[in-house]
Amino acid sequence: MAQDYKNSSRAAAALIFWMAALSVLLIRTAQLQIVEGAKYQNYARQNRVRKVAIPAARGLIFSRDSVIIAESKPAFNLVLVAVRDWGPAVITAARILGLDSSSVKQEIIFQRRAYPKDPVSIARNLAPEQVALIEEHADKLPGLRLATESRRQAPFGSYASHLIGYTSELNPREYERLKEQGYRLGDFLGKGGLEKKYEDLLRGSDGCEFVEVDAKGREQGNIPDLERLEPVPGVNLYLTIDWKLQQMAESLFTDGMQGAAVAVDPRTGQVLALVSSPNYNPDLFSTGISSDNWNRLAGDPSFPLWDRAIRSVYPPGSTFKVFTAAAALDSGLINEKQLLPKSCHGSMRIGNRVFKCWKPSGHGSLNLHEAIGQSCDVYFYQLGQMLGVQGISDLCLKVGLGSETGIDLPQEVPGLVPTVGWYEKRLGRGSWGGGVPANLSIGQGELLVTPLQMAVMYGAIGNNGALFQPHLFLRAEDYTGELLEKEQLKSHQLGISLNTLAIIKEALAGVVNQPGGTGGSARIYGVEVAGKTGTSQNPHGDDHSWFVAFAPKNDPVISVAVVVENAGHGSAVAAPLAGKLIRQYLAQQGITKDDNQKVAAAP
Ligand SMILES: [Zn+2]
Asked: How many angstroms separate the alpha carbon of residue 390 from the centre of ligand 1?
């Protein structure tokens, strides 16, 4: 493919650029007089040798379609290596670079108090003309040297920022923890997302060389009879992310919309897109975040640093009704044809409380298929009464709600499945009544899930009960392109009977494809999409809008969950967005003929 070629040649160009940048530093020294004949001990005895690290280039991160989504660029730093008598050289360097020499000196004194012998970076990320000036005045700068480092760059800015994560300079506490593993002061460290999760693979291993210095600490050239250790670039990671789909999913969140969108291949657990909105630009961290920028990001009330897809928990609202239904069907309390004792007149009294259906005029008598299709709350309140808290929580815990999915990202949260014990501890023994299971039955109350959990759960329903652990790691290659490691698929069964799953799948297809279904805006011509809307109440503001779906119904290749915070009805907001995602992916896979965004007409 042309795209592949373009990207692999871009990767090769990045590597060549990197190696060229390293050799720039050696040109001056190589031209100087070559010292002959002596061994390291000789040099060391005379204090004439300096061991200099050659930093490894950080591994690249690619999407599954071979687009580079995190790259490494060499950057130049000016580093103080002399331990004593550095004052005059530092003042000269500060003048050359236009820095305030007294604050530079203060910073050095501060660092040296903690680490008396370690090099100190006095200026980072120098511009090419600054590098040239330092080269030109090298004679006046004994004890200072130019060093390169591998600096992260996000070619697509803030896209996929939550899953990629960011790197930034390690702080003194991290340095103390990691110095045994070869980290030096000033090194970059993956601190969020995949950069953190796969730090050990991505960082590579630094090389070193030995440079002769004169009595004043000026570098005279590298020492040829002391072996140079070449750096080994970090491992290149290929992700399961489909970049076209990821970009599309990012673009769904317009006009300051907050929320998350997750797309997974239910046959493997490969995550195809994972978006949290708003996002942030990881380059802010890799260039050394200013306190202004940090305060702006950390204090932003929309929490752009927070990965809503795996760290935010929401009441699932009506998207949860399939689990209530599964519990009732599997325990034999109902069958799919049965009408429940109470028909829906818009509300139902439980104890001394009235629980409303979303439709004030009521739905009348419904069977399970119709109740899911029209999302009748009164139907599910009755299932809640039959199942009780334990019947609902047992099913939730069995399928894996209330636990992390195990995705290869740091900081995933488990959500919450409240059990009888949980309520007794919180509310006191026997002091809660029928309202609790009624709320749970429609995905309200204390039950909390992440968008990722819902995408994975619905995928497993579509996949006849086989739940594949979601993951982003597709494969790892070394810098020559040799395969080092491949994804390992892990799966388990939901523990819901095939018969029940078949009934639920039909009902979910009805939600999208039958007249009166609440998910009509996710309909796609020629393919059966199966999904469920949700409008979840929350104590912090307007309702959250949910849609969770998989397609095609009988052999799903994608499952998605979309949450838009405080946006109102799932049918109006989240469902059309999820529909766009599914439509594009099915077209990319050749399952539908075109990727036009028009919604198929109602039958
Ligand atoms: Zn109803």
From this structure: 24
Pairing mode, strands 236-239 and 61-62: parallel
Give CA–CA dist 598/603, Å, rounded: 15
The pair phi, psi for residue 215, each rounded to 5°, is: -60, -25
Q: Which residues pair with 259 in a beta bridge?
A: 277, 564
Query: Helix and strand tally (H, E) in the chain?
Result: 21, 21
Whether pTM exceeds 0.90? no
DSSP letter, residue 157: T
b (16+ CB within 10 A) / e for 497-519: eeebbebbbbbbbbbbbbeebbb
The alpha-carbon radius of gyration of the chain (Å, integer) is 30
Mean of pLDDT values over 334-353: 94
What per-residue confidence (pLDDT) applies to 118?
81
CATH of 243-588, one of 3.10.450.50, 3.40.50.2000, 3.40.109.10, 3.40.710.10: 3.40.710.10
Residues of the chain with CATH 3.40.710.10: 243-588
Q: Which residue from 194, 270, 239 is spatially nearest to 64, judged by alpha carbons?
A: 239
CA 79–ligand 1 middle distance (angstroms): 71
CA–centroid distance, 211 to ligand 1, in Å, is 80
Q: What's the 459 CA to ligand 1 centre distance in angstroms?
A: 27
Superfamily in which the 2-236 domain is placed by CATH:
Penicillin-binding protein 2a (Domain 2) (3.90.1310.10)
Q: Tens digit of pLDDT for each residue in 382-393?
A: 999 999 999 999
Q: Compute, in angstroms, the gap from residue 439 CA to the centroid of ligand 1.
A: 14
CA of 73 to the centre of ligand 1 (A): 59
Pinpoint the residues of the chain covered by CATH 3.90.1310.10.
2-236
**Which two structure tokens, joined as six digits, stand for 452?**
């990722």
Separation of CA 539 and ligand 1 centre (Å): 23
- Expressed in angstroms and rounded, the spacing between residue 368 Cα and the centre of ligand 1 is 12
